[in-house]
Here is the input.
Amino acid sequence: MFRALGAVSGQGLERLYGGPRAAIARSLEGQLQAAPLSYLAVVDARGHTLAGAGRLPASLALVDAARGGPVLSNVVHAGGGAPTIEFAIPFGPPQAGRALVEGVPLGIISSFLSDYFGQLRGGAGLALTDRRGAVLLRQGRISLSGVTSMTRFGTAAAVPGTPWTLRLEADRALVLAGANRLSWLPWLLLFGLALVAVIGIGLFRRMVIYMHRQRESNVALRESREQIGNIVEALEEAVILHHADGRTELLNASAKAIFDPVAPGWDLLDDTGEPLDERDTPIQRVLGSGLAQRGTIGLKLRDGSRRWLALRARPLVRPGEQGPHAVVASCIDVTEQREIELQLADVAERDPLTRLWNRRHFETALAEQLARCRRYEDRAVLLRVNLHGFTQVNDRFGQLVGDDVLRAVADGLSQRLRASDCASRLGGDEFALLLLNVEQHQALEIAVEVAKRLRKFVREQLNADVSLSLRSGAVSLDRQSGLVPDALAAAHRALALDKQRPSRSSAPSDEPAASAATSIPTWTTQAPHLSSLRVFLTAVEARDQYTAVHSRKVVKLARAVARRLGLDDAQLREVESVALLHDLGKIAMPDAILRKPGPLTEHEQALMRQHPIVGAQMVSSIPELEHLDPAIRAEHERWDGTGYPDGLAGLAIPVTSRIVFVCDAYHAMTSDRPYRRALTPEAAITEIANESGRQFCPSAAGALLHLLQGEAGKAPQAAR
Here is the structure.
């Protein structure tokens, strides 16, 4: 019996008590609290006590237990004299064997057997003793000396696998009563009584085995829970447990970090940012289907911000049940990644200049609407709009002004749209609108309103006589409209018919013509290198909108300063060109530097100081512009020689560079930048006056100050 018990427990004992002494002691203390034992101890193969818990005796009775099988001891008296039986189970490898010794109070065994044999009657008696005669159990009337008399029957038998002996006695008269004096009957009765006793001890054996198994199962369960809890807590992923009754448990710190801040409330979003019904979340789909789910959901907080979570959910099903009683879900915060993906998706489907939808997105929306027209007989109108005479604007004023015109038209179209409509820049100077549930005349009214807006823009912004008109063509879409190419072709034919009508100029003939007054040089329409300048200006604006606007402002200031200094026409043109292209080299600078909201590091400053060299190299590759190379390279040189990239000083710096440098500095100081607020014009004027003769050329700075302060007087001598 005890060998079987040892085989059952040995593996678990090795796990609990196979470590160092300190770990063994902690395990023994925990076991002692969970079981009604007098003491616990672990001994090695030499009989040395490695660790113990409880009131250990001076010496253990089973010190050699590690070298044999599971054994029971005689009755011993532990600390305080309490009768105890030691039970030892060996474990571990033979060469380093150990044994767990348990001190089982004698009262536990006696109480159990007393209850079992409490029904003895008729003068019967029972006793259980060890080899030394110590009584484990005494029940009924029995002589412990083992001597029987003529009036009593008696028998004794050793209990297998233990050091115990079982004695049974009964009155002869009572046993023989009614037995017809059969000589074998008393012995049969005694044998039956002995058999009953052995069965009782077998029940006790089962109780001990069950107690050990239950105790080890509890320990293993507790350790397993702790281990799983530690693993879940260590995960970077948030882990939540959602019950079918709606309760949700946040199982680790990551989950609390994500969900606690949004506890006051949030709205669910799908992976495109649209509102999401709670019944469509992965967790609810798991509860409904019993299958694992994964997906991305968004949380829109009350402050308007969004948080995105990549979520995986699995069902938990109890044995014998059909559906899940709970869902365990893990999720990670992918807000930054998802916002970038949405931005990239938006960029991929929008025109970068006007922020309208691009042709690809528009054709997709048009295809979906045509499908609805065929299936549900919906109605819509496709409107195509074209800027007639737009090439003239680009040729006369430059592409930057042309872009302003395109943006004005796009703004006019956007302001007339409903949420269900779609506007797109198809390319170049052509736009398209998809308008739902309207008639053709209503769509054409939008074109008329945009044309009025365009005329106002030309009159107020260009201040010029420009033959620019808005032409439009509209077609109704129904179930007969065909596919996307058919619809676009029909709208194009309507647009072509409108172009054949007399021109409706955006600059009415009754308004007096005016000369162009823009920041683009007035001479560029005649310059032989116009196309090269356009290429560079387009590259600068595409790279950094601020740099493009800043360059146009510097052109205006530099032109006025050059005239005040008395420069000739050739020098004036050079000043205008250098002012336009002085920051050309910045298109090679990283975005992280150009858009950094704070001061640059030394490494970033060193990299930024290369932009005059890069710009000079770029213009030197164009024969018509290579004469601008020295002036662009020297645009950041200082009068006192502390500038860059070559440390030129005084008159060694080209006059064009000196003029552009001071105008560049003034406009930069009076403009808001990501890393600082703009200075007031008065503060910037004071700064330039203070730096005249150190940072700035005195002549150029003086001319600019005269212009800014509105002072009259003779211009300073040009610094040639």
Observations:
- The CA atoms of residues 228 and 564 lie 82 Å apart.
- Residues 109-206 form one domain.
